[in-house]
Write a structure and sequence with these properties.
The chain is an all-alpha fold and about 130 residues long. It has one domain: Globin-like. Helices cover about 65% and strands about 0% of the residues. It has 8 helices and no strands. Helix 2 crosses helix 7. The radius of gyration is 15 Å and the shape is globular. The termini are far apart. About 20% of the residues are buried.
Amino acid sequence: MDIEEPQSDTAFVRIGGEPAVAALVQRFYDLMELEPQYRVLRAVHGPDLSPARQKLFWFLCGWMGGPQHYVERFGHPRLRMRHMPFSIGIQERDQWLACMLQAMQETGLAPELRDRLNAAFFQTADWMRNR
């Protein structure tokens, strides 16, 4: 039986695998709770961030080219549909992107990887707007 190794050019490998994705997600949600400039974004998430932390970790692992934890648990991400109950406009999009960029900077992502991910995050976040 052949075991597939992750391709070395994926963002998942370049970021440092699951430990680095977990650190990024933790910092992202910590910043969301700590920094007043993300208060509108924080308000969209409800009182307990634990489920969101876990789901974003699972999702980003697969989205970056690593294990498909999210898909294995929930099927296709259907991001836009799953986020429809939440009011997402330009302000929420921009705060999400700024918070993620700050988290990527603070967790030490290499500038070229950070730029690549930031561009991809913008496309996804902009597509998720529903107002």
